[in-house]
Amino acid sequence: MQLERYGEFPKQLPIIIEEDMFLYPFMIVPLFIGDEESIKAIDVAIEGGDKLIFITASKNRDNDEEESFYDVGVIGTIMRRVVLPEGRVKILFQGLSRGSILGIVSKSPLVGEIAPILSSSYDASRVEAILSVLKEKLRTLYSVSQMFPQDLLRSINETMDPNRAADLIASAARLKKEQAYKVFKENDPEERLVTLIDIIMEEIKAQQIQKEIKNKVNSQMEKINKEYFLKEQLKQIQKELGVDNSKDVEIEEYRKKLEGFKDVMSKDAYKEITKQINKLSRMHPDSADANLLQNYIELVLEIPFGSYSTKTLKIAEVENQLNKDHYALQKPKERIVEYFAVRELLALRGQKKNDSKGTILCFYGPPGVGKTSLANSIAIALKRKLIRIALGGLEDVNELRGHRRTYIGAMPGRIVQGLIDAKEMNPVVVLDEIDKIHYSFRGDPSSVLLEILDPEQNKEFRDYYTNFSLDLSQVVFIATANDITQIPAPLRDRMEFININSYTPSQKEQIAKKYLIPQELKKHGLKNFEISFTLPAIKVLIEKYTREAGVRNLRRKIAQILRKVAKEILRGNQEKITITPKNIGNYLDKIVFEFENADKKSEVGLVNGLAWTSVGGDVLKIEALKIKGKGSLNLTGNLGDVMKESAKIAYSYVKSLIDSGELKVDKTLIAIVQKNKKPEIETSIYNCFDIHLHVPEGATPKDGPSAGIAIGSALASIFTNHPAKSTLAMTGELTLRGKVLPIGGLQEKLIAAYKSGMKEVLIPKKNFERDIDEIPQEVKEGLQIYPVEHFKEVLKYVLR
């Protein structure tokens, strides 16, 4: 647009400042003006005949220059003016030429000395080449962003005026103000075009990056949308087919539950369960593997990760609970309190329990003496759940370690199942009858028990079913056994044994009065005023109707009595029933168990031996009989190999005593031999008789070396024809030199002697020195206990 018809320039023109952008010469645009100074400038332009006005752009706010607007802009004319409500004005502006401000004439309204920006001379061919490059870049930009309208791009391609092309491109490219100002003020067309080429190339690069990002985002969005669409389709299809579509909801619940355990479970556990959940999400819900996998996930998520009983350990509470639940058993209770005293002290001093390589307690003794109930009392005192794992007859290691999931019907081991049942990771676990595990082709369960019980290994116990490690170091393990010799040696090495001995009759009386009868009354719905037991009746019940080391059968007999009493009360026969020795037979069967009481009359060849059994001690009547013969020894009574050897040793030693003259043979025997004209009577009398040795109750297996001195005493009684004392019992192993060696199970044997009415007992001297303090005071007061070190001492007591 030419400015010749508007007269000579520079001219004083009113100035309007546009906030957002530069306007260009070719533009015809509507402008809305609300600023008072700008409205005054419009009025000044209207008053002038040519209606010329200068419009420039405001600078950025962070610019510290005095003027707040650029010194270049566009010179144009006001084609139309419309007054709007609220004092605003709308004008239709037509740009004519670029211009620059030479100076400010007035500030209210803003008027300046304005001159047009004239293009400098240029090389047409060079500019044409640059312009063609710019147009090519524009086409490239259009292909990646399409930011130019098609008609504008066509106009740019058709124009050959470099300034016109530069203005069109600058207006459409949405340049920053500083970029636009640089292009706007430049009067060299070549420089303007080169600057635009640089700007367009940067824009191309930016648009390409944006397009790449958008493609990636769109691709991900399409994938998500596709998955969502397909899942919705699958749900509808499953709904039409009648298939349960709650699988996704269940899997999401599994994930939420797993995330709740993440901070309290091991990394390998979290990794394994996550892997199986992901695997399940990809499976068809009707497949067999999906059901097995879902069972696995549901089960392992029931393991109480991070859940521990927080009860503070107090040994006073443990001691009180043990005394409340159990009568006597002072030594075992004292040892249990010591065990937990160490754990409490460690907790008070801030040390980890694992720092003390804790031992595993093992209660051993006859059945019914309270081994499992002691563990139950411990659990109550600690406020922990009690888990009982019966090991009797166990021969499959998978029962403890779990089955691998490759097998049909696979299940976790008893340890993991116990943790799930307890709902805490530190319960009290009782390994019952640990001496009765078996070995077979299915493996050795003791090897698994080693890992479970060893404090060095159980921090990372791995169950085959779960396939990840569990920390068992906080579990309180307590084992029980009847015979510790049957426990494998490696297991014995990791346990500390506490012997639970047999109860004496008086202890059983107190247990029956304080514990068994009240408990059974409650179980049978009876009241104290409806039935009572006299003390003599309880004694008869213990002595005549039960034969055991513990009180299990005693409880059964009391329950048997109470059942009959309940029936009588319901029939209205009696209001109050008292059990006495006279009527106790009406409520119980005939007497079936009796101790072999001491005989009133002493007999030749009959000696009382003492034996230990799995159900307590017992008195063995050892019988010897001489028959004319050639000196053979016959043994009967279902004797074991060790006991047979003891008999042979005793026979050989008694022969040596006869040969040396230390054992005087009965004169009657000498006369019999002389009548048969046998020479060397004193040294060969035993060759004239066969000896038959028998231990009654032949159906009962018997074994062990502790009957050695009893067998020797029976043989000595036969050859001397001197009766052995009927109120004397004995136990001890005999050697070929006549020494008496110590034995085991002394307390059970002495209690058996006491129950059977013996008055005197012979025991090895070493047992007397080390074990006599553990014998109940009642037994020590009821028996005369003599320590013996040699068989010659035994003969002094037996044959006196």
Automatic annotation (TrEMBL):
CDD domains: RecA-like_Lon. Induction: By heat shock. The active site is at 706, 749. It comes from the Bacteria. It is an enzyme of class 3 (hydrolase). ATP binds at residues 365-372. NCBIfam families: lon. Belongs to the peptidase S16 family. ATP-dependent serine protease that mediates the selective degradation of mutant and abnormal proteins as well as certain short-lived regulatory proteins. Required for cellular homeostasis and for survival from DNA damage and developmental changes induced by stress. Degrades polypeptides processively to yield small peptide fragments that are 5 to 10 amino acids long. Binds to DNA in a double-stranded, site-specific manner. This is Lon protease. It comes from Helicobacter apodemus. The gene is lon.
